[in-house]
Every structure is written in C-alpha cells, then in structure tokens.
Amino acid sequence: MPRTILHIDASARRTASTTRELSGQIVRHLGADRVIRRDLASPLPLLTEDWINANFTPADQRDAVQRDLLALSDKLVDELRDADTIVIGLPIYNFSVPAAFKAWIDLVARAGVTFAYSENGPKGLLEGKRAILAIASGGTAVDSEIDFATGYARHVLGFIGIHDVEVIAADRMALDPEAALKNARDAVTQLAA
C-alpha cells in the first residue's frame, strides 16, 4: 500500500467525468495513509516573463516578489516530492492533454528542482515514484498515432524522474462507452497495490 498518493484530476468536468471516476477508483483501490488532492479544474496560472526570471534567479538571490511568484510552483513540487504514487485523471482533449495539465507541467518541471542538466542530458530528480494515468477519450485510441497525450505524459513524467508509469484507458468512448468503461474499471481492479 502506498504511504502517500498525489491524486490529480485534469478534467474540466467536475461531474460526469470518466477520468475523475477512474482516478478516484484507483485511489480507493490502492489505499494510502494520506492522499494529497490537486484538482486542475481550479485553474493554475500560466507562466509569465516575471515567473521565468524568478525561476532562473538563484534561490539565495531572489527577492520577496520572486519568492512569492514561485510559491505555488514550490507547493506543487512539494506535493510531488511527498507522494510515492501519483494518480492522474487525464482526458484527451483535441488529441492532446488539457491546457490545465500543461500548466501544471510548466509549474513543476524546473531545472535544478525536479530535473538537472548533465553531460548525458537531463536527469529527473523525482525518482522512485510510481504514476498511474487514468486516460479517457471520445474517439482517439490510446497510444495510437493521433494520441499526443499519453506519450507526452509518459515522457514528461520520465523527464522529472518518474519512469514507472502505468496507463488505465477508457478510450474511444464515443464508439462503445459501456465496453470502454468496463475494460478500464476491470484494469483498475488488476492494479497491484
């Protein structure tokens, strides 16, 4: 059983969301001593020039305004650090990830904080964690040539050091929603805690 789960939902839908249902089922199935909740339907800010300048200012040289600009990002990174399992409800919107999820990525992918540059390329600093993606789509088959969400999510999680990534898919819901949802629910029950 994981000690701490970070449960992220990226769906804009607060009700009747397949990914919210599946991510919640995953969290309940795994059990945890603690669950940190992050709902991206409450929008995160987009990066600005001031944020970028603050991020690239050495920590010991940041002024109060810069520290304030990075406070939310620091909190999001702490949520990732505190969790040993990350469960993400991730719908496919227009062949890719929701903008809210991209905003979260931009706030947590920080050089020197969650990844570092080396002679061999970037190295993720959040190793030893497991991620489970609950992905749903209307017509896009997960891992198909038109699915730019699943591969991107795997890649960016690996970029910050999270290489153990599992996918539970309820894809192509527009074609056969009952079968897609049943297959995904069954896959959740097969997850190892």
UniProtKB/TrEMBL annotation:
- The residues that hold FMN are S11
Task: Describe cofactor binding as the record notes it.
Answer: Binds 1 FMN per subunit.
Record EC number: 1.6.5.-, 1.7.1.17
- Ranges for the Flavodoxin-like fold domain? 4-190
Q: Which domain of life is it from?
A: Bacteria
Tell me the cofactors it needs: FMN
What keywords does the record list, in alphabetical order?
A: Flavoprotein, FMN, NAD, Oxidoreductase
* EC category name: oxidoreductase
Per its record, the protein catalyses: N,N-dimethyl-1,4-phenylenediamine + anthranilate + 2 NAD(+) = 2-(4-dimethylaminophenyl)diazenylbenzoate + 2 NADH + 2 H(+); 2 a quinone + NADH + H(+) = 2 a 1,4-benzosemiquinone + NAD(+)
Q: How does it assemble?
A: Homodimer.
Q: What does this protein do?
A: Quinone reductase that provides resistance to thiol-specific stress caused by electrophilic quinones.
**Family stated for the protein in its record:** Belongs to the azoreductase type 1 family.
According to UniProt, the name of this protein is: FMN dependent NADH:quinone oxidoreductase
Q: Tell me which species this is from.
A: Ruegeria sediminis
UniProt lineage: Bacteria, Pseudomonadati, Pseudomonadota, Alphaproteobacteria, Rhodobacterales
Gene (name only) = azoR
